[in-house]
Amino acid sequence: MWSEDVRDRPPVPFRPAESAPLDCFGPLPRLDGTPPPRGRWVAPSPRPVPGDGMMEVWSRPAAGARRGTAILVPPWKVPWLSTMSGYARLLARAGHDAWTLVPPRHLGRSLPGTRSGEGFVSPDLPEVRAALEQLVLEIRALAALAGRRGGEVVVVGLSLGGLAAALAATGPERIDRLALVAPPADVAAVFRETRIGRRYHRLAARAGAPMAERGTLEGMLAPFRPDRRGPPAGRTMIAAGSHDRIALPSGALGLARAWGVEPRVYRAGHLTLLFWSGALRRDLARFLAEPVAAPAARAS
């Protein structure tokens, strides 16, 4: 992600989006089948879009006695699935079958001629909204499948995957444990205060369709904020890096306050926290091992 600003990119015009709630919390279509014990599984997405209509999951079995199923949601622009192997092993060692979801517009789901993650975030807000809604629905669908298998249902979301996981956890499906690592919980602040956001402002201006003024843009992005929705019923861990200049710790800390969760703050930047923090991995392992008194549920 550090090299994003040095790439030559074509202009992208700003397209406004409505400020209505996201359309990803209604009834799910039935999803038949289930991921195999190990390997790749492909199924129709609950919200197919042109060029990206199939959901892709890679599974790894629990090591030892099985306690449940964990859904792992990778970060934005994940370059290779192997970068998630450490988290998948951690989840398996905790007794969970690990299902790693390939996010829309990423890896093998990338649109023709694009790099992994291109198009998920851009000044084209209707497209951003559609991609996020698709990802939230896919997490919810996997949580529903995991719930039918028995045992705990766990969701671990990293960075942009953490934002989608946070939103999905406010839906009606049972999620017993939710771990969010460096979620960009205030997308408007990311557009306003980070190098990535400023780059998109420049691309929109070069296209002759500049981004909306601050207040208008915040209104359009308000539906992306999980802190505007009620807290999940299950146990929640929220981790932030004090030096994070990509997702910004303020969003994660605001989400923790809104949900009544004590945040875990690490002296780390964004990528350091995601991929090189031994302290985070140890805390996540302990969080997964904590007892849960009873299965959590939300009213539909």
Structural class given helices, strands, pairing?
Answer: alpha/beta
Beta strands, count? 8
Q: What does the main sheet amount to?
A: 8 strands, mixed
Under the CATH scheme, which class?
Answer: Alpha Beta
Number of helices: 9
Radius of gyration: 18 Å
At the fourth level of CATH, the homologous superfamily is: Alpha/Beta hydrolase fold, catalytic domain
- CATH fold assignment: Rossmann fold
Q: What's the helix-strand series?
A: EEEHEHEHEHHHEHEHH
Tally of structural domains: 1
Describe the secondary structure blueprint for this structure.
Blueprint: E1 39-49, E2 52-60, E3 68-73, H1 85-93, E4 96-102, H2 125-149, E5 152-158, H3 160-168, E6 177-181, H4 187-193, H5 195-206, H6 214-221, E7 235-241, H7 249-259, E8 264-266, H8 270-276, H9 278-289
Parallel strand pairs: 3-4, 3-5, 5-6, 6-7, 7-8
Antiparallel strand pairs: 1-2, 2-4
Helix pairs in contact: 2-3, 4-5, 4-6
